[in-house]
Amino acid sequence: MKSVLLIGCCISLFLVSCATELVHSGIGAPFSLRYGGKSIVQDAQNGTSLNLLFESVEEDSRCPEGANCFWAGRAVIRLDVNGTPIQVTEGMLPDSVQPVFGNYRFTLQSLEPYPKVSDVQSSERKKQKAYRARLLVNYR
To answer: Which sign does the torsion angle of CA 96, 100, 105, 110 carry?
Structure first.
């Protein structure tokens, strides 16, 4: 009986650990979202919300730590916003080129982990799962 209970507890813990992350945030409040994670961003002014999904890392050409690079590179992620895909690029971009959805502007403040020279040997799938994006949603 004890072994059945122990196995049941282990299965429950495994299922909870595999659950999709759901982050709640508001307009103008930075938040972190792991690869594959979902977020609900509440707009208190008009009572609506945005459903975000961190779908993929489209590009991570940032110069690895410990390397000398001609170009600093960039990170680009794809978000699904209420069923519409958008690409968000890390860095200080003028407002005119930051992605928008309706009345909202999206900023990728950072993407972690920052690449290292040793990461070249890591599999792409392993690297994707390790990503965590710091995002900000503001009004246009």
So the answer is: negative
Which has the closest alpha carbon to 81: 99, 97, 57? 99
pTM to 2 decimals?
A: 0.78
Q: Please, which residues have CB within 8 angstroms of residue 25's CB and are 6 or more apart in sequence?
A: 31, 39, 40, 41, 42, 137
Q: What is the pLDDT of residue 66?
A: 84
Q: For the chain, which domains are there?
A: 21-139 (2.60.98)
- Digit-coded pLDDT (tens) for 57-66: 999 989 988 8
Angle (CA) 51 84 78, round 5°: 85
Residue 91 pLDDT greater than 70, yes or no: yes
C-beta of residue 104 within 8 angstroms of C-beta of residue 82 = no
Tell me how far the alpha carbon of residue 92 is from its chain's centroid: 18
Q: How far is CA 139 from CA 23, 87, 133, in A?
A: 19, 17, 19
pLDDT at position 82 over 90: yes
